[in-house]
Amino acid sequence: MRSLSPAGAGILLYVLAVMTMTVMDSMAKALTMDLPVLQVVWARYAGQTIVVTLIVLPRLRQVLPTRFPALQFLRSLFLLAATSSFFFGLSRMGLAEATALIDLNPVLITLGAALFLGEKIGPRRIFGIAAALFGALVILRPGTELFSPAALFPMFGAACYAAFALVTRFVGQGETVWTSLFYTALLGALVLSVAVIPVWQPPSLRALVLMLAIGAVAALGQFLLIRAFMLAEASVVAPFSYAGLLFATLWGALFFGEWPDGPTVLGAAIIVLAGIYVWHRETRDARTAPDG
Known about the structure:
The protein is 75% helix and 0% strand. It contains 13 helices and no strands. It has helices at 6-31, 37-56, 60-63, 69-90, 95-102, 105-116, 123-140, 152-171, 177-195, 205-231, 234-237, 243-256, 262-287.
């Protein structure tokens, strides 16, 4: 990556992070075929907590102090709810469909920022948000025989992730990335370590290997994200988030024999285009006078 510009290297690392996260999602989907979803979520958090703790151990005294303990707890709960909801959705529907619906979160962040943080929202952004929600309806197909209530799980996950992002934005630059990453993983692992007890099932050898791998893959994805944001601005890499939909479609076809149907492809395309449009308005208005 020495021949790449910092922005180019950041984009490459971000795409690798997105790909890594979809690999983790594929592992989670495979695990939910053998184990309770809650146990799979626990494996994801416990593994990531161990890896992150090992990374920050030499500077743990600098990482542990937080100026916002209540907000860190709230962030962790929102992300835990988002992850759990998404994994529940994965256990009951296709990887590409679930990923398309969770990809509503960028436009929900824009909507939430206007409602709760007082950020400006104009008619063009409202159009983008409405278009994305229409795309979700195309995928959901409510009122038809093809409608699956399971699809509501990733939609709820998108809302929870948007809330997580808004709390993070509210906290701002008051915390280091490693502090936020450490508490997000630790608090989720502690809550799940209690919640998983009633549903725990002894894993098979295959499931145990996947449980060990899923946390490590999650931590790798988070590390790549952090490195990407160190090299490139968030506004530069944001559109590449939707590469996850391509990877999810690929893994779904290769590992689970899932091929999205026409309405799913159409709805996903609407969500992606609406998200990119809202991103374009956000970055354009950041450089010029806000016009909505």
